[in-house]
Amino acid sequence: MPVDVQTSIDIRRPREVVASFAADPDNATAWYVNIRTVEWVTPPPLAVGSQIAFVAQFLGRRIAYTYTVREHVPGVRFVMSTQQGPFPMETTYQWEDVAGGTRMSLRNRGVPSGFSKVTGPAMAAAIRRANTKDLERLKSVLEA
What we know:
Largest sheet: 7 strands, antiparallel
Number of strands: 7
Number of domains: 1
CATH class: Alpha Beta
CATH architecture: 2-Layer Sandwich
Structural class: alpha+beta
CATH superfamily: START domain
């Protein structure tokens, strides 16, 4: 069963500020609650094809994965995906101007395999909770 979770938040900062901070892998540990470490596999700067390794703690498990950047339109859209592990995933960030700031949308989608396939609905709920916390933390960091 595919998992497709989208969340969004309004942040009282200009779109360019929100997008540039959120799309920078070096800032991931500042706003992603579950990400523990980030390491560039390919050298910066960020571009289509860049690879970034993440280690996260999710649902009580350590998860290591490498994202490949698929699309990067600064200030508009950022897409990265991983093919590893029991839950290959695509993550998309989108930014749009709203009154007083920026709306950032965060979307995670993928098709779980193995045991993760059975837990798909529960995984979607856990991802939604985590994404909501992440976006709230991003808002807090950028509006401070």
